[in-house]
């Protein structure tokens, strides 16, 4: 994908603050620190359009971006960060569910996981929500550069088994080497064009 433009539009918590639902939207979700910002920045060829390693504990916001005047990208707040205060954790679920339920332009969610981790309850719950709202999931395992080839194979088997997702449907990615960038873009385009 050739990137001509990529810009931040706005941050929101509630639907009235969302920008107009004018473009097909793809959201990005994952645990805090999973490498979500890095992945989006690689997709749009920008060093820090999405700010990396956001301070945990801040009010968590849904950030909207526009890419090539063609797609809306949404950076969803990360989940599962142990140090996040309870008050923030309590608002995360309703904010997420409202977004998934109400956003009519949403076409799919890229679910980002660390290849070194077995997916936990949060990932499984998230996939259930997506099924419930009939939103396609694009599962991506990132930080593949951190494991040897043989360990990557083992982890892919564990992750696909845990998620109940065919191994061939797990996209292998690395923000460091940019491996998988084309596959993620292809999956996004396929999802938008369904
Ligand atoms: P976020 O909290 O999910 O947005 O995660 P970030 O994108 O801020 O990444 C968290 C940390 O992991 C940062 O130190 C990144 O440099 C690092 N990181 C992210 N993706 C990769 C990757 O594919 N490979 C390696 N080696 N490090 C990565």
TrEMBL record:
* Keywords noted in UniProt: Cell cycle, Cell division, GTP-binding, Magnesium, Metal-binding, Nucleotide-binding, Septation
Protein name (Swiss-Prot/TrEMBL):
Probable GTP-binding protein EngB
Q: Which cofactor does it need?
A: Mg(2+)
Q: Which family does it belong to?
A: Belongs to the TRAFAC class TrmE-Era-EngA-EngB-Septin-like GTPase superfamily. EngB GTPase family.
Q: Which NCBIfam families match?
A: GTPase_YsxC
Q: What is the lineage of its organism?
A: Bacteria, Pseudomonadati, Thermodesulfobacteriota, Desulfobacteria, Desulfobacterales
| InterPro entries given in the database record | G_ENGB_dom, GTP-bd, GTP-bd_ribosome_bio_YsxC, P-loop_NTPase
**Domain of life, per the record?**
Bacteria
Q: Which PANTHER family match?
A: ENGB-TYPE G DOMAIN-CONTAINING PROTEIN, MSS1/TRME-RELATED GTP-BINDING PROTEIN
Instruction: Say what the protein does.
Output: Necessary for normal cell division and for the maintenance of normal septation.
Its Gene Ontology cellular component terms are: cytosol
Q: Name one GO molecular function term.
A: metal ion binding
Q: Where is the EngB-type G domain?
A: 22-194
Q: Report any one BP term from Gene Ontology.
A: division septum assembly
Keyword Ion transport attributed: no
The UniProt record lists the keyword Cell division: yes
């Amino acid at each position: 994908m050739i990137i001509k433009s990529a810009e931040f539009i706005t941050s929101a918590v509630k639907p009235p603050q969302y920008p107009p639902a004018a473009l097909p939207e793809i959201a990005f979700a994952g645990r805090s620190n999973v490498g979500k910002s890095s992945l989006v920045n690689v997709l749009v060829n920008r060093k820090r359009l999405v700010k990396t390693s956001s301070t945990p504990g801040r009010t968590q916001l849904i950030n909207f971006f526009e890419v090539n005047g063609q797609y809306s990208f949404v950076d969803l707040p990360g989940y599962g960060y142990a140090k996040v205060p309870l008050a923030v954790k309590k608002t995360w679920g309703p904010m997420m569910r409202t977004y998934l339920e109400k956003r009519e332009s949403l076409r799919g969610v890229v679910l980002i996981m660390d290849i070194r981790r077995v997916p936990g309850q949060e990932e499984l719950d998230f996939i259930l929500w997506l099924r419930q709202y009939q939103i396609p999931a694009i599962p991506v395992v990132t930080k593949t550069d951190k494991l040897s080839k043989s360990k990557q194979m083992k982890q892919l088997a564990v992750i696909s088994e845990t998620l109940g997702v065919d191994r061939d449907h797990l996209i292998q990615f690395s923000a460091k080497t940019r491996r998988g960038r084309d596959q993620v873009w292809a999956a996004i385009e396929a999802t938008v064009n369904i």
